[in-house]
Design brief:
18 strands; single chain; alpha+beta; 17 helices; Helix Hairpins; binds adenosine-5'-diphosphate; five-stranded mixed sheet; Jelly Rolls
């Protein structure tokens, strides 16, 4: 893996190493290819393969060498449908032997008298579509019962043992009209005669298929050369060695492309499947019936599927052509594979049809082409690992080509076979697309449902939160109302109790009360009732202000005039009290605001009165106001009142604007309702203003009020426009 990472083709040594490796690899591939090719020729010194894969016996000298021997020591009499009676007992009758004919890998011979331009010529056993196999053996005397398997006899045969017909498969005749074919595996009992001789004659006819005969891949030679089993073993050992060689080389080079376990897993499966494919050949394992073929064809299809998985896993997934088709290709290949395999396992006789065999080859060829295309498409996009991937794909393709080279069926591509492939792929695609569409639909619905549920949950949660808030507000308001009620009743009861006390005093004392006392009582009663009236006024005002529809009578007001007249009033009132009042206002009349005159009067008065009330005799109260630029644009009037009175404890500064709140130090010896500042704050708020306090206990307090300023000349121009003028 680190090797791959270093392959940034940064230094020349790396490039050279890759180059040398590639050359070595290609040479090895060539050697392997030659070995595979040579192995597949299966030729002896006497014959060769023609281009259709048939054994060409043109140069075989029948005069000298006698009859042709097939593997397992069978004699073969092409073009003759012979019965045991045709062979006399001691005889070595020379039957007409043919020169110039070939035997197809399927075991049938074909007269090659005419030049074979059309491959279909090799379809039949000679000109008549018939042929006879004969095998003579000697077994130890007294051998009771022997049996022999005929893995494939296609398509019509009569099997004779020591002259007796023991099996009839289909109808073997040289008249094509009477001919009836049948595909089967067969087991025949061999009963030796007293001397231990067994003479088997198999009379075959085949007018329908290129595939058929007793053997599938005859080895051919002189009687001494045909030590069939050993020849076959040697041949297959050769194939297995070659394959192992391929695996070793492939493992070395292809392993370099592995970036994860998955790929390696697929690759190993490819190798295992290839080997199983080879091993399941009937020459190595002869299972009864169609089992060999079924196993082999299963491994064959698995191989195609795993290879596709391997190629799909080589490159990272991207949003390109292969990314868009996502896993569809793999699913289609999978469904196609399953369709093929189910068809074969359900109806094994299909395996003996040329068209289905060709369909298999087309399937493999199509998938290989697709995989190769995939690599070619991806390689330029991933140049770093390109060489290795290309090599691995060439390798995989070569493995498949060797499978193809050895399957003669590729020469018989018929329309029917293409139809089978198209049909299987079509069905696979149809079902895959339907499945995927349904799946997508369901997942879309699920997503929509999830979104809807989330939305609903969201709105329910919101409504719930609003309800909780509203509920808390109600509770808070209820508490505030109760508190206010108790405050109000307390504050109202106090003067009433006092007044009632004075009245009772007057009533009880009758004539004894002096004029002087009476006057004092009446004055106190008057003060108390004024207090009560004030309280009720305050309450009414506060309630009005707090209700949303409190209407303000807004008009241009000169705060300067208002402050000046109030200032004069209070200077007069405090005369002789020792308290000092100072005023600092701009000369020009720039303190104009849009506001409710009565209410603004209340604000200024309340703050000045508080300052006077909460200072001792040496109190100094400084009133000032000026125009300033507001923080958020525009201009505002800043009104402040500073005193050197008792101050407000820091912890209580937060609460003084609350209704009925009075700081502890104020409540001790100054009377008051605690309503004034809450009324002031409400009014300031209604004028879009701000109010705050700075205070140090026992040092003094400063109240600030800011109200947006109106234009100086009272028209509608904004201050910005004004300053431009
Ligand atoms: P009150 O009728 O008690 O004056 P206010 O609402 O006007 O009611 O004031 C609330 C409280 O704020 C007062 O009780 C007092 O504790 C505090 N306070 C207001 N102005 C001053 C000030 N200038 N100096 C010290 N404390 C003040």
């Amino acid at each position: 893996m680190t090797e791959i990472d270093n392959l940034g083709i940064k230094d020349k040594r790396n490039v050279l190493r890759i180059f040398v490796r590639t050359i070595v690899f290609l040479i090895l591939l060539l050697v392997v290819f030659v070995i595979v090719f040579m192995t597949n020729q299966r030729h002896g010194e006497l014959f060769r393969l023609d281009k259709s894969g048939a054994l060409d016996l043109s140069d075989y000298n029948f005069e000298e060498r006698g009859r042709v021997y097939l593997q397992h020591g069978w004699d073969f009499y092409p073009n003759q449908l012979l019965r045991p009676s045709d062979f006399s007992e001691h005889d070595e009758t020379v039957y007409p032997s043919y020169t110039n004919f070939s035997i197809s890998p399927a075991g049938w011979a074909s007269s090659n008298l005419k030049p074979s331009s059309n491959l279909m010529d090799s379809r039949y056993i000679g000109d008549n579509g018939v042929g006879t196999y004969r095998l003579r053996m000697k077994v130890p005397k007294g051998t009771d019962l022997l049996s022999m398997d005929f893995p494939e006899i296609n398509y019509a045969a009569e099997i004779y043992v020591n002259g007796t017909l023991v099996k009839e498969i289909g109808k073997a005749t040289d008249n094509p009209a009477d001919y009836r074919h049948q595909e089967t595996y067969s087991r025949v009992n061999l009963q030796p005669d007293e001397l231990g001789n067994i003479d088997i004659v198999v009379s075959c006819a085949n007018f329908t298929s290129a595939i058929g005969g007793i053997t599938v891949a005859p080895a051919l030679g002189t009687p001494d050369q045909v030590e069939s089993i050993s020849t076959i073993s040697k041949m297959w050992i050769c194939v297995v060695i070659t394959l192992s060689l391929l695996i070793i080389i492939a493992g070395f080079f292809v392993a370099a492309t592995f970036r994860n376990k998955q790929k390696y897993f697929y690759f190993t499966l490819i190798i295992i499947c290839s080997l199983l494919y080879e091993i399941s050949d009937k020459f190595i394992v002869a299972l009864p019936g169609s089992w060999n073929k079924l196993l082999q064809v299963t491994f064959y299809f698995l191989l195609m599927f795993i290879t596709s998985l391997y190629f799909a896993s080589i490159y990272p997934r991207e949003f390109d052509f292969f990314g868009r088709i996502r896993n569809w290709d793999i699913i289609i290949i999978f469904v196609a594979m399953i369709s093929f395999l189910s068809a074969y396992w359900i109806a094994p006789h299909l395996l003996y049809r040329t068209s289905t065999l060709v369909a298999n080859s087309l399937f493999a060829a199509g998938i290989n082409f697709y995989n190769f295309f995939r690599v070619l498409y991806k390689t330029p996009r991933h140049p770093k690992e390109g060489t290795f991937h290309l090599i691995s794909s060439v390798l995989a393709s070569i493995i498949f080509s060797t499978l193809l080279i050895r399957s003669p069926q590729v020469y018989f591509i018929s329309l029917h076979s293409i139809g089978v492939v198209v049909l299987v792929f079509g069905t696979a695609m149809y079902f895959t697309i339907r499945y995927v569409r349904n799946f997508e639909k369901i997942s879309m619905f699920t997503q929509e449902l999830e979104v809807a549920v989330q939305e609903k949950t969201g709105s329910i949660t919101k409504v719930n939160a609003e309800l909780v808030n509203a509920n808390q507000m109600l509770i808070k308001n209820e508490e505030a109302r109760k508190k206010m009620m108790s405050n109000v009743s307390h504050d109202l009861r106090t003067p009433i109790t006092a007044i009632r006390g004075y009245i009772e005093l007057i009533m009880n004392s009758k004539n004894k009360i002096s004029q002087e006392n009476l006057e004092t009582y009446l004055r106190s009663m008057h003060t108390r009732s004024v207090q009560m009236e004030q309280l009720i006024d305050d309450l009414v005002q506060l309630t009005r202000l707090e209700s949303d529809n409190a209407k303000l009578d807004k008009q241009p007001i000169s705060l300067k005039d208002m402050i000046e007249s109030l200032f004069e009033l209070y200077v007069m009132e405090t005369e002789g009290s020792g308290k000092q009042l100072t005023l600092d206002l701009p000369d020009n009349d720039s303190l104009t605001i849009m506001g409710d005159p009565n209410r603004m009067l209340r604000v200024i008065e309340n703050i000045i009165v508080n300052a006077l009330r909460y200072t001792e005799e040496d109190g100094i109260v400084e009133v000032s106001a000026y125009r300033e630029s507001a923080l958020l644009g525009g201009e505002s009037i800043h009104f402040t009142v500073r005193d050197n009175g008792i101050g407000i404890p820091t912890a209580e500064q937060l609460y003084i604007f609350d209704r009925f709140y009075r700081a502890a130090n104020a409540a001790v010896n100054k009377s008051g309702s605690g309503l004034g500042l809450s009324i002031v704050k409400s009014i300031v708020d209604k004028h879009n203003g701000k109010i705050w306090v700075e205070s140090v206990e026992k040092k003094g307090t400063r109240f600030h009020v800011i109200i947006p300023a109106a234009n100086r000349n009272n028209n509608n121009k904004s201050s910005a426009e004004e300053s431009n003028e």
